[in-house]
Amino acid sequence: MRLYGLQLPASSLGHISLLLLGVDMSVWSLAAKVALLRHNPRALDAVLQNYAIAGDKVCSSDYDDEMMQGFVNKGLVPRLVGTPLYEPCCQFLIRTGDNNVLQGVLQQLQARHPAEAAALSQRVAAARPALDSISSAFKKVYSRLI
């Protein structure tokens, strides 16, 4: 497994992820990305627990779109409910998710967190018309330039 140019045995990634959690909060997103590489449940549990304990101390520099994409791709959005990562993940989904991805996430949430699924569905419905109108405005301006 290659991680930032280093060749590492896949079996060591969980251990590396756990070690990174002990360093500093600034490397937690790296710990999450390492845990997501091989979907290491023990390491992911530790990452999510650390974020949950940190609570209000978590800020936008403690996660990024790549990390959120990893949670979405692995079907782990429901596990983010109740952690400080859930809201940023919702914002990420609204901003970047296509309809198929959003529908998949909503189905996953519906199974264990129906209230969160309903709330996210409403937020998507409210945000999409605004995004669609901005997109069509850009298309109009672009078509006039050509």
The number of helical elements comes to: 8
Global structural class: mainly alpha
How many β-strand stretches? 2
Element pattern in H and E: EEHHHHHHHH
Question: What proportion strand?
Answer: under 5%
What general form does the structure show? globular
In round numbers, the mean pLDDT is 79
The first-to-last residue Cα distance is: 46 Å
Spatial strand sequence of the major β-sheet:
1-2
Structural domain tally: 1
Q: Major sheet, described briefly?
A: 2 strands, antiparallel
Flag low-confidence runs.
Answer: 133-138
- As a whole number of angstroms, the C-alpha radius of gyration is 18 Å
Keywords summarizing the entry:
single chain, 146 residues, mainly alpha, two-stranded antiparallel ribbon, globular
